[in-house]
Design brief:
single chain; 193 residues; 6 helices; 0% strand
């Protein structure tokens, strides 16, 4: 029997999932930054490299924390709705089904955020490779140009299928990790006095 969200996704597990995902996402961005350093900046001064990693990590951490704050809000909203439904349920739908819907919504959000993290890291690499600058406002000019022509060029010049496959696999791995973290039983610490 599949564990329900209300039973398994308690506060400590939610924080464990969020902390685990923050670590995974930050390591992913760090790996992409190191790859970009090796490919694009082979003769850099060590101090400049440190500044690059420090600034990039700060920006990445800010973005990741926004996504994780939304995840925590979603987790706690699902828990509140689940609690209210168990106390005042008058519908025929079983409590387990309602909890599994919340569980699916949370895992779907994790999959979406994971996909976006991977896609932004890879997209940043190819954007820098093409334009020799970080992603800026000109990326949104896609709608102003001949969109079909730009998309056709992207399809021909970049490994779109491989990138999407990598993003999907990354999302799948993050969801699997989250499921494992959700199902962990965290022992209660007892302090002897």
């Amino acid at each position: 029997m599949k564990p329900s969200t209300h039973q398994t996704l308690q506060g400590s597990n939610a924080l464990l999932v969020v902390c685990g995902l923050v670590c995974i996402y930050m390591l992913s961005f760090l790996a992409m930054r190191v790859i970009m350093q090796v490919v694009f900046v082979p003769q850099a001064v060590m101090q400049d490299i440190w500044i690059m990693h420090e600034m990039g990590s700060r920006l990445d951490f800010r973005i990741v924390c926004m996504g994780m704050a939304a995840l925590l809000l979603l987790i706690y909203a699902v828990q509140i709705v689940s609690f209210i439904n168990t106390k005042c349920s008058k519908h025929n739908m079983s409590h387990t089904t309602k909890r599994n819907i919340g569980h699916t919504i949370i895992l779907g959000y994790i999959a979406l955020i994971s996909f976006l993290v991977c896609f932004s890291a890879i997209g940043n690499f190819y954007y820098y490779k093409t334009y020799h600058t970080k992603i800026d406002v000109f990326i949104f000019g896609l709608k102003d140009d001949d969109t079909l022509a730009v998309l056709k060029i992207m399809w021909q010049d970049y490994p779109v299928i491989l990138i999407l496959l990598a993003c999907i696999l990354y999302s799948f791995a993050c969801v699997k990790l989250s499921k494992k973290l959700i199902s962990l039983t965290i022992p209660t610490l007892r302090i002897r006095t």
